[in-house]
Amino acid sequence: MEALATFLSNDWLDDMMNVGANFINCHLDFNRHAHITNCLWMDVLRSQRLQDSTYCFHEKSSLDNTIQSGLLSIIDIPVNLGNHWTCLWLDILPRTVAYMDNLNPSVTPSPEMFRLLMCYC
């Protein structure tokens, strides 16, 4: 019964998105320059920013290290807005952010999302 409640609540979607992202990341070419983040990555950045308003790379993750080494230049970030999924695409070298929302193609990332991502450019 608990499994049915979880399924009906949409709480499982984050897990499925993360499993899919991990699968894709693991099966990409070894020399890839792109990475799909965990769908909670923006929430982690937001939380760290709340703890320190000048946050940029406190405890470096393996993703941080890969970015700083120059091996990674594109980050795809799935974002759950509660009722639908969107995607942020960060191209580090030219400092470009693209936001994809299939329900509203003309929408842009929020200023908060943009500020959080600029720590990586």
TrEMBL record:
Domain of life: Eukaryota
Gene3D superfamilies: Adenoviral Proteinase, Chain A
Protein's name according to its UniProt entry: Ubiquitin-like protease family profile domain-containing protein
Organism: Cerrena zonata
